[in-house]
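ok so for the tutorial part 2 we go from a plain amino acid sequence to predicted structure tokens. step 1 is just haveing the sequence, like this:
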Amino acid sequence: MECDYLIIGAGIIGLGIAKTLKERYPQKQVVVLEKEKGVGEHASGRNSGVLHAGFYYSADSLKARFTREGNARMKAFCREYGLRLNESGKLVVARDEEELRTLHTLRERGKTNGVELELIDETKARSIDPNVRTHGRALFSPSSATVDPLELVQRLRHVVVDLGVKLLMETPYRGYLGNNNILTKNGVIQGEVVINAAGLYADRIAHAFGFGEHYTIIPFKGVYLKYGGRTVPVRTNVYPVPNLKNPFLGVHYTITVDGAVKIGPTAIPAFWRENYRGLDRFDSGEMAQILRWEAELFLRNSFGFRTLAFEELRKYSKRHLAKLASEMVHSVDIDAFDQWSRPGIRAQLLDKESRELVQDFVVEGDERSVHILNAVSPAFTCAFPFSEWVVDHYIGKRSKE
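step 2 — the prediction. this is what the tokens look like for a chain of 401 residues:
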């Protein structure tokens, strides 16, 4: 089988690129390979569902470039197709003077990135959410919202199929045979251009093509804890001030599209790439490779990995996780956080030379193949403008020839 564009992975980025390609080049054949029965079975359908506003990221980053527009585009998509959308906003709260300084840094980033954002006092914060607790000031982001991520990805599937994209489900990538020939369970497929949007396995596929050689993916397990009490503890999404040296935002309150409240996520180092529950999808080779990297990072305490690992492992305790969340509000029944959510795995890119986690999106490629190596949060929010950028910078020029 041959096609013009062969995309590996039917997550939000793979489908977003498929949509962009088919809209711009309707006569070209676009094929998407997906190893699972459904779309968005991994990170795209297992994330928090938060549509971020764009104030966490430095102005020179791709994340800053695409988040504000992506937020608006995702909301418009939800409205167009009648998908659920909770526009309750977000409060970022501080615990002390040091965090207050970081809060001001976030405000300046938001201003530079053109994000609607307000630095407010405690009185104004309580008017937005009477239960919220902060030290002097808080940031309010009215454009932050939540969606049902799996519902959105499934709708996007219907959109791209209607455009004429061919989805090959239960067709996993098995290897690269050269000359853009991809071996799958169901035979060999050749794409004039191959686009690798394989998430947790994007680095492996890129290496086979000769790209991303100094990167590897380290998986981190994220789980939320759902609130089962009668009285809802917060009215809006409530976040702590993040540590800007790492890409994790800390334990926070998220209000889902149906009004439920959950806290999390964890960022627990996983032992293999799809280490969701127990020994499901166990891979001894993956575990050996990942444990080797994690052991080195632990011993060196690269980017504070040792501290992070100890802190995150404690979050397996429901009570400990709930206590962390309780610091951001005046009162909450911590025992009412009683049900774990469906776990997700963050495909976090590691620079093997610097031993640092890569903060921004990373794409490598040439005229024959493109590899989305690092598409972590807020990639879901950014999916539409980011996909268009990938097409513009790596595929568009060739397609116009």
